[in-house]
Design goal:
By secondary structure, the chain is mainly α. The chain has 14 helices and no strands. The longest helix has 36 residues.
Length: 305
């Protein structure tokens, strides 16, 4: 599915363009973001995780406490997130709705689940001074834990994730985010946090409720399919902020909008579909495993036979 999203970006850049269009593409493609409001949180996140991992291993032994798979998931998720927010796709997203859609899908459907699978919270806490960790445990952990348990109820997390996606694609709000940097930052942050809450709720359930998680993934896929189809099949431009920008890339505004809708509709939704099918398969295997009867149950059955 990552390949499908990358292919979508390739298609965005492969439309015929005039000389001005080619120049614009090259210029945009060469722009890597140096926004300190993106760079500083990203690198702080990475440094805290690295420091925490070193401290965990110093106390538990190398490779213990943080398995290699979790470590790989974290750095893969962090790298994908950094590429989405800092690479030329970020600059291009201000010119093409289709590029903006790829950026959003990468954040929500690739970076977020990888970060959830890495379970980074313990490592991040170990990066803090011991006095801070104790204060967090005594004063903040309980209310935060209560709020997190409430937010990660699967049905609520699914609804929240879908509402965030739909709300930010309301034309007036989407256009406002493109002209207001702080609102744009809030948009990306809400996409990431909403997706992290959703994937955490879906991937951290008892094994006998994995099938329910798969249903929530399918429900999210349906919500995204409906929105993607609405954007792709609209006969008029929905987002005025992109008016006149796509022509520099050999596209007209409607073509760009249709491509953006298809990106959400097909490769974006496919990630959720594949995850749902994987969970269904795991659920079926789990259901097929015989569970031992509690002690004394067999004798009780024989007595009543």
């Amino acid at each position: 599915m990552i390949i499908a999203l990358a292919t979508s970006l390739f298609l965005v850049l492969s439309f015929p363009a005039d000389a001005h269009g080619i120049s614009s593409v090259v210029t945009s493609a060469a722009q890597w973001s140096a926004d300190p409001y993106i760079l500083l949180p990203l690198y702080l996140f990475a440094i805290l995780y690295l420091l925490g991992t070193q401290r965990v291993w110093a106390n538990a032994g190398f490779g213990r406490g943080t398995p290699g798979l979790q470590l790989a998931c974290f750095w893969a998720g962090w790298t994908v997130l950094a590429l989405a927010l800092l690479s030329p796709i970020h600059a291009l997203s201000e010119q093409l709705l289709s590029a903006h859609m790829i950026e959003h899908e990468v954040i929500m459907a690739v970076a977020a689940p990888l970060l959830v699978l890495s379970r980074p919270l313990g490592n991040l806490l170990w990066a803090l001074p011991q006095a801070w960790r104790r204060r967090l445990a005594l004063e903040i952990a309980t209310p935060l834990s209560f709020a997190w348990r409430w937010l990660t109820i699967p049905a609520l997390a699914t609804a929240l994730h879908s509402i965030i996606i739909w709300a930010w694609h309301v034309p007036s709000l989407f256009d406002a985010a493109l002209v207001n940097p702080w609102l744009h930052m809030l948009q990306h942050l809400s996409f990431l946090l909403g997706a992290v809450i959703f994937w955490w709720a879906i991937l951290n359930v008892p094994r006998m409720r994995i099938g329910v998680s798969a249903l929530h993934l399918f429900a999210t896929m349906i919500a995204m399919t409906a929105l993607g189809a609405l954007i792709a099949l609209s006969p008029y431009l929905l987002y005025s902020a992109y008016q006149g920008k796509a022509e520099a890339y050999g596209l007209n505004g409607l073509d760009d909008q249709q491509l953006a809708g298809v990106i959400m509709w097909v490769p974006g939704c496919a990630i959720y579909a594949v995850a749902a099918l994987a969970l269904f398969g795991r659920w079926i295997k789990t259901a097929a495993i015989p569970h031992p009867l509690p002690a004394g149950t067999l004798q009780e059955l024989r007595r009543w036979a």
